[in-house]
Every structure is written in C-alpha cells, then in structure tokens.
Specification:
The protein is an alpha+beta fold. It contains one helix and ten strands; from the N terminus they run αββββββββββ. The chain has two domains: 47 residues; 100 residues, Lipocalin.
Length: 155
C-alpha cells in the first residue's frame, strides 16, 4: 500500500502543480489597444492600456496655411481638433479663412471634407505627409463655385 500512496501522492502533487501553472498563465491579461477603430489596435489584447492611436491624431494641431483660391493668395492659421462625434471626425477651425468650423472625416492620411456649417459649402480633401498638409477643395457660396488649393505647415 505504501507504493500506491507514494505513487498517488506524486501524481496528485504533479497534477496540482500543472493545474496551478495553467491557471496562473491563462489568467494573465495581455494589455494593449482594444479599440478596433484605432491604428494601433491589438487583436490579442484583453485589457486596454490607453495606448490607442487614431488616424486623426496625426492631423491635430495648428497649421499655417498658404492657399490659392480663385486666383488670389491667402495666408492664415487653422486649428484641427478632435470632435466629440467620433474618433474618425475632426473639426477644422477657420478652414478657408472664413471664421467657420468645418467637420471632416479621417481615413488613414486623408481628411474628406463635405460640410455646410452656414451658407458656404465645403467639398474637398486634405492629406498629410510628416508635418505638412496639402489640400484642394471647392467652396460654394450661393451660385459661385471657387476652386481652392494649398498647403500648411504644422506649428
């Protein structure tokens, strides 16, 4: 009986050790970005660690704009900020130099603008490379359509 008890004790102890190890290793949560809308999304993460980076983040800030619109040249600052609408939406403050805030939708390195905050209609795109944005858009005021283009440097 002594051999059976020793063998049983050895197997039981081994079983308990393996069970404890498997519980320990499977209970560890992998941290990372758990938001599938983020560029830094980690499908293996179980617990969000605040590391999510969104496509809009690279656009956020103040840009000094140089623009040609209807043959005239303009220089002015714009501020691109987060929107409370969603992680893929930004607000362009003073876009076009008219003192209006325009909404844009971010996808990758491009903002698509199609908004009518008042009586002016904005339609166009903005792309970013490093700290420089390049844009072209049509500005519709009443029956007049103006074609505008330019770039901006992030401050």
């Amino acid at each position: 009986m002594k051999n059976f008890n020793q063998t049983f004790s050895t197997y039981f102890f081994t079983f308990l050790m393996l069970l404890s190890a498997s519980i320990f290793f499977t209970s560890c949560k992998k941290e990372g970005c758990t938001d599938p809308l983020a560029e830094s999304y980690n499908a293996d993460a179980d617990e969000d660690d605040g590391s999510c980076v969104y496509a809009r983040d690279k656009f956020l800030g103040t840009f000094n704009i140089s623009e040609t619109c209807a043959g005239d040249n303009y220089n002015y600052p714009i501020v691109i900020s987060e929107s409370s609408i969603g992680v893929n939406t930004v607000l362009l403050q003073d876009f076009g130099g008219y003192g209006e805030t325009v909404k844009g939708t971010v996808s990758g390195s491009t903002i698509s603008v199609s908004d009518t905050p008042t009586t002016i209609v904005y339609n166009g795109t903005i792309t970013i490379s490093g700290s420089t944005i390049t844009f072209s858009y049509n500005l519709t005021v009443g029956t007049n359509i103006l074609s505008c283009f330019g770039n901006g440097i992030k401050q």
